[in-house]
Amino acid sequence: MGTRWRLRRDRRLIRGGLALLLLSLLTMVAIRTALPLSYTNVIRAAAAQERVQPALVAAVIRVESGYRPAAVSPRGAIGMMQLMPSTAKWIAGQNGQDQGMDLTNPRQNIFLGTRYLAYLLRRYHQNLVLALAAYNGGPGTTDSWLAHGRLTQDAANGSSIPYPETRHFVARVLRYRRLYRLVYGI
To answer: Choosing from 64, 101, 110, 177, which is the catalytic residue?
Structure first.
């Protein structure tokens, strides 16, 4: 009698474990569907080249364009990382690559956007909030906020950013960055 009871218990445990495993897999599929990650190899290569976290690049792409290569903003920003043509030309010119740019080309856009993000991180001494504020609102605007005390160097989460659009952008990028690191391990 004791052996039968142990076998039933073991079968229930195995079925429960399999059910939990299936639920975990379905949850992961649902999360990955809601949190897309495309062009992983390009993101990893650009991030490695510029010494930027891949999860940060993925988060900027997710917030800026939702991974749509041909996205164009009302202000004229183009591609997955929503680069203004003048900014893209400037950042490409830093490496002598300003010829034949196609900002709707995912590879070119990701490499240029990541290079620009790395530049902003250096400019703002690795302060992620300030770099993201500058990515969205422009370095001139961010510098003006800093100069006039409307934003400080120790802005930890971006809640003090004066522009609601930029404040919301920074918060979303930071949230998606955490999710990309958790879900995809990048």
So the answer is: 64
H or E element: which one contains 173?
helix 164-184
- The identity of residue 17, as a single letter, is G
Q: What's phi and psi for 39, nearest 5 deg?
A: 55, 40
Q: pTM of the predicted model, to two decimals?
A: 0.84
Q: What interhelical angle do 85-93 and 106-123 show, nearest 10?
A: 80
Q: Look up the CATH number of domain 39-184.
A: 1.10.530.10
CA distances from 150 to 122, 144, 145, 154 (A): 21, 8, 5, 12
CA distance 77 to 84: 4
64 is catalytic: yes
pLDDT digits (tens, 9 = 90+) for 38-54: 899 999 999 999 999 99
Tokens (6 digits) for 120: 């902003």
Q: Is residue 109 packed enough to be buried (19+ CB in 10 Å), middle (13-18) or exposed (0-12)? A: buried
Which range, of 13-22, 71-80, 150-159, averages the lowest pLDDT? 13-22
Which residue's structure tokens are 């991180």? Answer: 121
Which spans in 35-138 are helix H? Answer: 40-50, 54-65, 85-93, 106-123, 128-137
| Distances 133 to 12, 55, 97, 101, 182 between C-alpha atoms, Å | 53, 17, 26, 25, 23
